[in-house]
Interferon-related developmental regulator N-terminal domain-containing protein
Amino acid sequence: MGELVPSILKSVKSGQTERETVLALRALGMILITDPRDEVYDTVADTFKRSINDGEYAAVKIAGIRSLSAATFYGGASTEEVEEVMDLFLDIVSSDGAVVEAPDNAEIVTAALEEWGFLATQLEDMEETTEAAMDTFVDQLESGDVDVQVAAGENIALLFEKSYTDAEPGDDVEKLDPNDVETGHGQPTMIKRYTVYRQKHLLQSTLESLAKASSKRLSKKDRKQLHTAFADIAHTVEKPTRGPRYSTALDEDGREYGSRMKVNLGAGSIMTIDAWWKLARFQGLKRLLQAGFLVHYEFNEAVYESLPVVVDDE
């Protein structure tokens, strides 16, 4: 990797065409996940940020966002650096792309939303950053672009999920507000640690409307995407311990079936995604690895450790 990364970085810095620059950025993202190194973030971060801020083409900015996310996750970034990159992505979203000279570009906003969620899965405690992020994501629910709406909604679900953690020995569960404790049906006791959004009822109303959206401007595909995504997101906002496709039906042992999202990886392999953080990681890895996901999942330790989920046969 010693000479390869600097060589490809030159193509990012001085690429003569949009295609050359985009391919160079994507290649660096692949290298980072194939051979993660703790020192790589410092080497590539500034170049990636320049491609986002100063790139002439939208495709370059998007590739820069994706590669910066990969470098932050796999290149040895500190917690402070992770938060700085997430702040950059949040600024892109809150300004509708204007902060990187791409006003009202839905694809760029979607990329920033998605990679914000991917990086958020690395952080243990997000209480301090949740309020500003939630305000931005709730605003984006009003977007005219379905991909922006869904990406914002999935981040909202992730933040609600992260506000609950397992009960610890020092927690006096009996003295807590019953509404802040989730338990039963064979599941571990989970406790609400902080308030994610103060106007929860208003948010729930918005989510329910999106889950039933029937606007004529929407294609059948977009309408189905909205309905499926926001039905799940609304359920999580109501009960943050429930992941995507959650079923309250009980199995033969009296336990809820729980999240039943199945993703087909190809080659007869199925993965069950039972939490929003797992969905964010899966989607982030799929964007980066595309058709090579299953091979990397089987043989690349860094990928498996990012998403330690059992893969079943169909």
Strands lie at 164-166, 181-184, 187-192, 246-250, 256-259, 261-266, 269-273, 311-313. The longest strand covers residues 187-192.
